[in-house]
Amino acid sequence: MTDKERIKVQKRYQVARLLGTVVLMFIFGFALVPLYNVLCDITGLNGRSSTNFAAGEAQAAQRVDTSRTVNVEIVTTVNASAPWAFEAVTQRLTLHPGEFVTARVIAENMEASAKTIQAVPSVLPYKAARYVHKTACFCFDQQQFDGGQQREMPVVFTVDPELPAEVETITMSYTLFELTDTASAQGR
Question: Is the full-model pTM beyond 0.70?
């Protein structure tokens, strides 16, 4: 084999390796979303939990800890000064662990054009995140708003009675992100 032939084979091998790497990176990019969702379900990150909510709701109803109360604060923010009004109707509530409650927030599109938004949740202190179980939340899905539309949106949740005793206050925070450009690019 001559030097030119050997170089030609090496170039083909290098191109094949690079194309293989690009394909693997593409596949990995698509796999990240379900992997992230599994991680959130396992760890309770972003207020998510793998709890079977139908069974959890029935079980929690039987295990309401009336000897103890937990304060829950609802905090809302809008990312990047977008033209949105976003505030908690229910800013603070007190509940017994195991009791299901509904908190509400109001979002309003201050522009004339339709917009798509998503709220990203977080729970503080972090160790409490695995004990907050949401059965319904506006943060689970993207929300479509017409121009000038205002909507009251609920979050239904419970705090597990297994919450460590030193946690007396939980802060549930929601940051509103506008996704209109992203949703348009995806053909929504």
Answer: no
